[in-house]
C-alpha cells in the first residue's frame, strides 16, 4: 500500500466525520476485554486511536481473540505468525473476519480489511468487536472472559408452538385495534348538503 497524502475538500470532510464516530471509552472497554479474553500472551496498547490501530493492525491479536472464543482444538485460525509484510498482515485480518462471520457476526456488521490496516474507519472496527463481544456473551458457552455488562446481549429467537384449537380460537376474537361499533349512533348527523350549524 502506498502512503497517501492528506485529503482535501469533500474527502477530508467525510474522513473527519468518520473519525468523529470513534469512541475512546469504547476503546478502553474493548482493550480490557481483549486482554482478559486472550490472557497473558497479549500486551496492552497505549491509549489513543492510532495506538489501538497499530495494536490490531498485524492481525495477531484479532486471531488470538477469535481463537479464544472456540473450544481447544477447534480454533478457526490455525496459523498465527508475526510478519512485517503488508500482505501477510492483511491476510491475518481477513482470516479473523472470515472466522468472525462463521462465529455468527452478520456480514454487514463486519469491517473491511483496509478499514483497520490503513486506519480509515476505526469506528467500524470498534462496532465489529462490540458485536463479537455481544455475541460471545449471548452464547453462554463458558468461553467468554470478562464482565458481561461490557456488551449488550443479542436477542434470541423465542419460537412458540400453538395447537390447532388455539389457532382457531384466535380467529374468533376481534381485536380492538380493528375498531368497534359499540355505542355508535347517527345522532347529531345532518342530511347531506346542509351547512354545519355554528352557534
Summarize the structure.
With 199 residues, this protein is mainly alpha-helical. The chain has eight helices and no strands.
Write out key terms for the chains shown.
single chain, 199 residues
Secondary structure tally: strands? 0
Gap between N and C termini, in Å? 81 Å
Number of helices: 8
Class computed from helices, strands and strand pairing: mainly alpha
Q: What oligomeric assembly is this protein in?
A: single chain
Query: Which segments are poorly predicted (pLDDT under 50) over 5 or more consecutive residues?
Result: none
Question: In words, what does this structure look like?
Answer:
With 199 residues, the chain is an all-alpha fold. It contains 8 helices and no strands. The chain starts with 8 loop residues before the first helix and ends in a 27-residue tail after the last helix. The chain has helices at 9-20, 24-38, 49-57, 60-68, 86-103, 113-117, 122-139, 164-172. α2 (24-38) packs across α7 (122-139) and α4 (60-68) packs parallel to α5 (86-103).
What is the topological layout?
Layout: H1 9-20, H2 24-38, H3 49-57, H4 60-68, H5 86-103, H6 113-117, H7 122-139, H8 164-172
